[in-house]
């Protein structure tokens, strides 16, 4: 028997919310009073803190899941439904990067990046959009990357998967728009998270010099745009990918 | 909700009312698509999700898609 949220908080799923950008997005929705579920393959101190904090423990759900496996993705979404009865917001954030010259890339590295970044996102989106269809409402945000638009040396597979997510955003927005489900994407620039691990200090300094905002991005910069795109009153902005990169690609 | 035929039929009726496709007579042999009820692919997906939410399983996840109202009732009766 599912326990319906007693207050007005939204039920939010953030995939890959145990660290980095995903953790920043989880924190943002917890701060706005929502009920937040997240999953990743391993637990982190941040997740343990949300589970233990009396201010968030009742509004936070953690699930260990490898979203590259359809059965894990389905089980995680079912656990959220069992606990809170619905999903109002899905932030598809889970992703992994492997860097290297593509002509030397291994099969395993290609599979790892494609399986999580594309297939994992498709699995979760399928499970959640079914529930949103039944309720005829919902907001989905796919976190892609500016490298899906511009490309980046050494990130061919990662760039390809992020461009795929932008295609998913446009297709799902067309498919689900008539049912009150809003689908948008965010293409972050370079952030101060471990996802920039493939870049050395010189590359990061070069990026900062070329960025009009004069700095790398913070998870909070992206979380604020997530909140804007998932505002319950926002139903007319859909099918768009918002570039949030401090002006780097402007 | 149970999987009793009356409950499943009620779910179908409520859904068809919502999409404004409830026929005068909802008979078991009535086709779900085309010249029958006329569900399109998105409406079929909605019905699939609602049936799963309300009755625990989804008749559209099997090897053969239900073709008639009776096929859905038979799935839950099995």
Explain this structure.
The complex is a heterodimer of chains A (250) and B (78). Chain A has 250 residues and is α/β, with parallel strands linked by helices. Chain A has a single domain, classed as 3-Layer(aba) Sandwich (Rossmann fold), CATH 3.40.50. Chain A is 44% helix and 15% strand. Chain A is built from eight helices and seven strands. Chain A has a seven-stranded parallel beta sheet with strand order 3-2-1-4-5-6-7, with helices on both faces. Chain A is globular and about 45 Å long. Chain B is mostly helical and 78 residues long. Chain B has a single domain, classed as Orthogonal Bundle (Non-ribosomal Peptide Synthetase Peptidyl Carrier Protein, Chain A), CATH 1.10.1200.10. Helix content of chain B is 49%, strand content 0%. Chain B has three helices and no strands. The longest helix of chain B has 15 residues. The mean pLDDT of chain B is 95.
**Unreliable runs of chain A:** none
For CATH, the homologous superfamily of chain A is named as: NAD(P)-binding Rossmann-like Domain
- Radius of gyration over C-alpha positions of chain B, nearest whole angstrom: 11 Å
| Gyration radius from CA atoms of chain A, angstroms | 17 Å
Keywords (chain B): Phosphopantetheine, Phosphoprotein
Protein name (chain B): Carrier domain-containing protein
Domain Carrier (chain B): 10-58
Organism (chain B): Nocardioides marmoriginsengisoli
Summarize this structure as a short list of keywords or feature phrases.
heterodimer; A: 250 residues; alpha/beta; Rossmann fold; 8 helices; 15% strand; B: 78 residues; Non-ribosomal Peptide Synthetase Peptidyl Carrier Protein, Chain A; 3 helices; globular
Task: Please specify the SSE layout and strand pairing.
The complex is a heterodimer of chains A (250) and B (78).
Chain A: E1 11-15, H1 20-31, E2 35-40, H2 45-52, E3 60-64, H3 70-84, E4 89-92, H4 107-135, E5 138-143, H5 147-150, H6 156-176, E6 181-188, H7 201-210, H8 219-229, E7 241-244
Parallel strand pairs in A: 1-2, 1-4, 2-3, 4-5, 5-6, 6-7
Helix pairs in contact in A: 1-8, 3-4, 4-6
Chain B: H1 5-18, H2 41-55, H3 69-77
Helix pairs in contact in B: 1-2, 1-3
GO biological process, one term (chain A): fatty acid elongation
Keywords (chain A): Oxidoreductase
Domain Ketoreductase (chain A): 10-189
């Amino acid at each position: 028997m599912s326990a319906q949220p007693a207050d007005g908080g939204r039920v939010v799923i953030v995939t890959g919310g145990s660290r980095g950008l995903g953790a920043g997005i989880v924190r943002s929705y917890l701060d706005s009073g929502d009920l937040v579920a997240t999953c990743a393959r391993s637990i982190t101190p941040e997740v343990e803190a949300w589970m233990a904090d009396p201010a968030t423990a009742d509004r936070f759900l953690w699930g260990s899941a490898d979203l590259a496996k359809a059965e894990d993705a389905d089980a995680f979404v079912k656990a959220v439904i069992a606990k809170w009865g619905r999903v109002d917001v899905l932030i598809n954030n889970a992703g992994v990067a492997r860097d290297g010259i593509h002509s030397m890339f291994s099969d395993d590295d290609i599979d790892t990046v494609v399986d999580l970044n594309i297939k994992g996102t498709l699995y979760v989106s399928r499970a959640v959009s079914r529930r949103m269809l039944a309720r005829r409402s919902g907001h989905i945000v796919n976190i892609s990357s500016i490298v899906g638009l511009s490309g980046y040396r050494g990130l061919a597979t990662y760039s390809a998967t992020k461009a795929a997510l932008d295609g998913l955003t446009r297709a799902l927005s067309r498919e689900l728009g008539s049912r009150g489900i809003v689908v948008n994407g965010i293409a972050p620039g370079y952030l101060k998270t471990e996802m920039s691990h493939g870049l050395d200090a010189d590359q990061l300094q070069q990026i900062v010099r070329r960025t009009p905002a004069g700095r790398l991005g913070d998870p909070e910069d992206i979380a604020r745009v997530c909140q804007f795109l998932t505002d319950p009153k926002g139903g007319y902005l859909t099918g768009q990918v918002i570039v949030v990169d401090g002006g780097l690609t402007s | 909700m149970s999987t009793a035929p009356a409950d499943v039929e009620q779910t179908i009726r409520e859904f068809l009312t919502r999409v404004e496709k409830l026929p005068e007579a909802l008979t078991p042999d009535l086709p779900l698509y085309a010249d029958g009820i006329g569900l399109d692919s998105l409406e079929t997906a909605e019905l699939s999700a609602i049936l799963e939410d309300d009755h625990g399983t989804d008749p559209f996840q099997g090897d053969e898609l239900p073709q008639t109202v009776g096929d859905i009732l038979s799935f839950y009766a099995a």
